[in-house]
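Hi V.,

You were right to ask for the full record rather than a summary. Here it is.
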Amino acid sequence: MKNFKRSIAALAVATTLGMSANVFAANNAGTLKGLVTDANKTVIAGATVTIKNSNTGFTRTVIANDDGSYRFPSLPIGEYTVTTTKAGYESETIENISVRLGETSVSATMFQAGVERIAVTGSAISAIDTSTAETALNIGAVELARIPVPRDVTSVALLAPGTTRGDSRFGGASFGGSSVAENSTYINGLNVTNFRNGLGFSNVPYEFYETFQVKTGGYSAEFGRSTGGVVNAVTKSGSNEFAMGGSIYTQPESMRENSPSVRANDGTWYTYRDNDSRSSTQANIWASGAIIEDTLFYYAIYNPRDVSAEYDRTNSNGNLDKDSSDNAFWGAKIDWNISDNHRLEFLAFSDENETVTDVYTGNGDGNNTYASTAVDQSGGQNWSVKYTGYLTDDLTMSVLYGENSYDLTTQSSTGGECELVGDYRVYYGANSSIPVGDVWIGCSTTSDYFLEEGEDTCEAFRMDFEWVLGDDHLIRFGFDNETNTSFSNQLYSGPNGAYWLIYPGNAGTAVNGVTLTEDIDYIRSRERTVGGSFETTASAFYIEDTWAINDNLTATIGLRNEAFDNKNAGGETFAKIDSMIAPRLGLAWDVNGDGDSKAFINVGRYFLPVANNTNVRLAGNERDVREYYELGGLTGDPKNAYTLGAQIGDLEVISSGETPDTRSIVSNNLDSMYQDEIIIGYQTMVSDEWSAGIKYTNRSMNGAIDDMIIDHAYVNSGTCAAGYAPHQYVLGNPGKDMEIFGDTDCDGEVDGWMTFSAEDLVYPEAERTYDAIDLNLAKQWDDVWAVNITYTWSKSRGNAEGMVKSDNGQTDAGLTTDWDFPELMDGAYGYLPNDRRHNIKVYGSVAITDELTAGFNFNIESGRPINATGLGHPNYGGEVDYGDTYWLANDTGEVDGDGNAIYDWTFSPRGSMGRLGWQSRLDLNLAYNTELMGLDTSFKIDVFNVFNAATVTRVDESAEGSFAVINDYSFGRPLAFQTPRYVQLSASFKF
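Predicted structure:
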């Protein structure tokens, strides 16, 4: 458009170069744009601009506008040649233009025919795209091959500024302080995100990917359902040239280190890893070419793999698991250039996987006995088809339909007969005679007690249009709809579908509503089943105008309107929110008018849907009950490990197993969960090869959605008398008023609409605020070396992490323990788990010779904050079933006049126990490229965590063994470390 300018230096080489470009809104295609000028920088209107894909022959032609600008939208990723012609001028051709996701800008200088001119030569210059305020990282397979990056999408995302690795129990990346469950991942335009709880996504082998776009903020109205970031990936495609190749990657056990083993505070083993092992070998066989030259192309890949691991489940007493996985991946991409104006793409892949775990139990002497085999299934069949039509030079349309599936089935060979039984007294220091390794005393283990038959399927449809309106406006608009269905049938192993946990009980504390009169040990069961098929429909309309206000100022004005409809197992709507208006505004200013620097600002709102996990758990036929008994004793027989004494209290019913009245479980005035964002930044070209930038980001989460118990609101509002407890959990907005179908006459049955004020409910509003400053310096690859350096200062604070909870490893999206009781939130405000105050990333590569290259990837970041959590609240007593989710209270050892213990409220809010140590990691690689027997061959060695740094990444934050009694066994002990050193050897060939 007309705001695109070039510096004198850039104009001098314009006939031979393509301005590489940035990251405008794009799904799985690229855009080529530019300006046609003469030697005096005067624009040339009416020039004919033709592009041709160098590998497929795909060709398109447009006429330059009155301001000399031209634009080719929705292009296949690849290498292009640009040719400009006009009567009275010499034809100009620019070759080897790499079009990636987003926009690539190429300006051509034309010379009058017959006029003598100085020959101009040059090479590619990477400049600033001054027409967009979006922030993202564009990186392709060629660049990634030069640097040591683990072969997974998360590791690619972590190269981007503002991203940090999430809790080791979740995996994934945190974008801008958001939880790891708030991101979206697309492959060729198909949303493959796990919509059950937001964790993970369908995946393809690293070698199938062609390029990645990691959107970290300010992304366009085309994208939604994310308050974190977006990873937008495109797979490889075929070309006219037949090619075939293969590769093999192996991570041998002999070149892998283990994380340290850890002893408890009393000197016994807490976690034992010395005997752990893991090895992995994967291969890729691929072929590509043309079925019909210049028209129909294919790319196919087959990925056999063999992964095995062995690890101590507890403490080197013979309790161990042996995992194995050997399912092969297959994928295919078909591209059909029906004509110059019509294209069709088809993608299909299967990432089905089955992990088989052989479970062994110890005999107390370090030996073991085979116990069972557990099978976890994941992945599924995925496909999409996309049509692109260049209806006119100014109007382009694309239509995509696809289906994505993910298996969630877990089975065990002993599921019908074995129970999980845990003796937790050892952790609380109440029974030191119990060896730590014997904490699980039943014949089921933590590896095989949870059973599920489940599958998630997504049907996605979207239409997108791009319309160039005059010289100053680019209008983009569209619609997308996803129907997400979760089938789930869950239960615990054993004849009763329950697991049992043994605890120490102290006189004066409450257990299941009963105050203990003496110190006793007690045992608690939990039986939980759920089943059904649950559907959520998510739809959105968007429109966006990229307006060239003048030569130097561009505004991107967008609006997205979203709607979510979550249904229960009977197909009835239980949570529906529509008219969620998400405005987006970006301003980009070409500061000097030469295309070499820009200042930008972006403000926007982003909504997050109610996760399908909420449908399954809250709106299903979930039966969740608990029983409490005095412990009679232990038998020593794993299949019948305990005897029961007297029952303590009545059956505790969390969920009855009946599908609830949807009006009684969701607030009628439920508002959406969203995040507001503002980004201000500046980028500049320091030289032809060096760029620098600074960026400030502020994100603020609003309107969290979670389940809350409202029993106390009946009493606080004066509706019911003290002691009324219907165990009514409601999905609502913490800190807001609630309209609910409730029990108006306190007889235990819901019968009418009620309104509880925020004061009645007592819950605080959800808060999460992220502030960050990013500094970046980068040198582009010049066939000799390249480097990218980023420093991020950030602060993430609030009382809620988001969709998941790193404090206790909870993946229960939308139903975390945070808001279950008001007292759980006392002290919850502080620095959040994804808060990393300082983060430095340096990666790059160097060509030692023409055949030998070396790469490096260095990261150092400050540690996460540390908490101290307890088992209860001094004003409410202990809630053992919730684990260590309260903040800390100490027993003073004194009693009041009635003989009740006196507790000292030691307020230790979130993040107040200091921080973990700084983590540093250096990865190196060395690649040798040569020709063997006519084959292009490459050999490479990658060494990850070269110095085997072993910084602690998570500690035991459970400060209480029993209510108001310090956990002197494991509090503060390390639970996880950064990934230890391992080596990857690889070889690849192509002909």
